[in-house]
Amino acid sequence: MSNQPDGKTCLVVGAINVDVLGRVDRFCNRDEAVEVKNLTIAPGGHASNCAIAMSRLGKGVNLCVRLSGCVGADEFSRIALQALQTSGIDTAHITRTGEAQTGQVFIPVLPNGDKALYVARGANEYLSAEALAAAIADCEVIVVFDPPLRLIPTLANGVASKTVIFAPGGLVSSVSKHILFPLLKASDILVVNRPESASMTGISEPKSAAAKLATEWNLSAIVTVGAEGCWVAQPGQPVEHCPSFAVEVVDSTGAGDAFVAGLTVALSLGKPLLLSAQIGCAVGALATQSLGAQAAPPSFSEVKDLIAQAQLMTAPPVGVHASRK
Q1: How far apart are CA 305 and CA 313, in angstroms?
Q2: What is the mean pLDDT of the chain?
């Protein structure tokens, strides 16, 4: 299951799912039925979404994207793997298990693009430490989403000399901080959204939360705020704001994963952190224009066009390269 060109290799670690999603006029109340329209079965999962977006962005710049995760021995695995292989992802380090089905998520999507997620992690919990260690070995950049919690020590030890971007998502509110501590200490960049940053810091205002995260964990902290863009904090430096981009939103599923993809590819190409975050905002915005997280990942030319339309390319910000602590 390998499709790996020569060049810099970026590894993405986390969930590989299949999404069952559709349109609803509103979320239902208890014991109430709400009609679902445009029901779709599509590949998804934080790591899978990010890897596919990275692969599209990385075409022509000699960037290989590898994914480490686990799927079941079922029909859903075919849907998930076919999308990855078609996108040119290195899937040689994805394992199978007969112990559980491929991860699945039910996603009702409101008319304005907002959504809810009902998650069954399934096979994602069966990734082995040996498979993960082998995937990490020759990678320079590691993006970590939601691995099995038992593998966090393995990850933290294995990425000590790498550039690490950690986007823990729901883990910050579902597990105690001490479990995430090893990865937070090993990371160079932390990416969380507004509710996640509030959960980690007790601060509801995202700019201040970003500053606290950067200082507390001695890393670059990015707090995304949807249509408002993101806040970027680095220890000892002023917190910077990156605006988002005006697009017609169809479905916000996977927008955060797309943001991480844009950020990571830009950093891998040597872009400064603040400009990389702006590119991430553009990728995230473009990813909301189709139903489904992997429906239409943008190319770098589309990203550049969007930024140019917003007149940001004429005065690029002065940022600082992310560096090891």
Answers
A1: 9
A2: 87
